[in-house]
Amino acid sequence: MGDEEPRQSLEDLDSQLKKARGDRRSTSRGPGPRTGPGQAVHLGIDMAATLATGVAIGWALDVVFDTKPWLLVVFVFLGIGAGIRSAFRLAKQMGAGGAELSDDNDAEASENEKK
Amino acid sequence: VTTSTEHHGPLDQFAIQRWIEIDIGGFDVSFTNSAFMMCVVVVLVTLLMTVGMGRRRLVPTRIQSIAEMSYELIAKMLGDLVGGKGAEKFFPFVFSLFMFILLGNLVGLVPYAFTFTSHIIVTITLAMVVFVGVTILGFVIHKHRYLKIFVPDGVPIFLMPLLVPIEMISYIARPISLSVRLFANMMAGHTMLHVFGGFVYTLGFFGFLPFAFIVALYGLEILVAALQAYVFAILTCLYIRDAIHMH
């Protein structure tokens, strides 16, 4: 009889541990912090970086081919397109794990309210 | 009342000071406060891992459990994101990158210390190492087929002239967003701390209000320091996965 109870609680602990590990695995995937504001900052920096890259490439090619300002114009739009594409990819990702994301959104939102 | 903080702008804390001036062939390779902090961090990481794992106990001491936790974090991240065999080959790289940035961020929060991750030249160098390394890795594994990474799946051929340059731009933008994210977070945090530190003095009696805010902000900064190192490591893992598995 005395042996029964600790065994019971050990099995309990085991199942709890398994559950906790499963929970953690499901949230640890994907790039960047999985919170609303965190992802917004992530995306903002991504969009700025793609636009800047587009401008830099366009400008450099203009100088090389002496076609000012046409390639710059083209690559600005391509840069914007690349930014929108990363927003699109993030949206697709959120769609894949959308339910669980909206759950921990509110809880961690206050934690991550930087900028 | 005169104050010495008048000459100290919020950005002066990021100034590079040459401690030992060295000049090799016209290049300024002086030993600076930034270089000093990097050395401190490397020594700290080495100490943490060697002392922490020196006497392996079944019930770990505090230092041993920090060392084990950081090991497990990166090992799990690589397993989850890169996966399969060969993922552990990248462990030393990702782990040293992560520990270097993490300790650099955290040690930088110590008063009077210098935060080398608040300089974009440092973060973009780290990001370029990742970018160039991952690109070489991709070409070594897939040879010329690695160029297919610029071609999205299931897209009609007439859209290619539009989509391939877009993919290329977002590939090239990777190191920029990677480095700007880390540098901007660290620099903004430290500047904010300095500005609120100035308020404590100028508000006189009511200085306790910004002081209380600084305490809260410090907690947030510790979180950001750990989070940004984590994000850098996770994105490195993602890029490695892209190079190995493509799409």
Q: Span between N and C termini of chain B?
A: 64 Å
* Mean pLDDT across residues of chain B: 88
The coarse silhouette of chain A is rod-shaped
Are there runs of chain A of 5+ residues with pLDDT below 50, and where?
26-30, 98-115
Per-chain topology:
The complex is a heterodimer of chains A (115) and B (247).
Chain A: H1 4-27, H2 36-65, H3 70-96, H4 98-109
Chain B: E1 18-20, E2 23-24, E3 27-28, E4 31-32, H1 33-52, H2 62-81, H3 91-108, H4 120-142, H5 160-172, H6 174-202, H7 208-245
Helix pairs in contact in B: 1-2, 1-3, 2-3, 2-7, 3-7, 4-6, 4-7, 6-7
What labels describe this entry?
heterodimer; A: 115 residues; mainly alpha; 4 helices; B: 247 residues; two-stranded antiparallel sheet; two-stranded antiparallel ribbon; globular; disordered N terminus
Notes on the structure:
The complex is a heterodimer of chains A (115) and B (247). Chain A has 4 helices and no strands. Helix content of chain A is 81%, strand content 0%. With 247 residues, chain B is mainly α. In chain B, the strands form 2 sheets. Chain B has a two-stranded antiparallel sheet. Chain B is globular. Mean pLDDT of chain B is 88; it is low at 1-6. The A-B interface holds A 25, 28-29, 31-33, 38, 42, 45-46, 48-50, 52-54, 57, 75, 78-79, 81-82, 85-86, 111, 114-115 and B 76-77, 80-81, 162, 165-167, 169-170, 172-173, 176-177, 180-181, 184-185, 188-189, 220, 223-224, 227, 231, 234-235, 238.
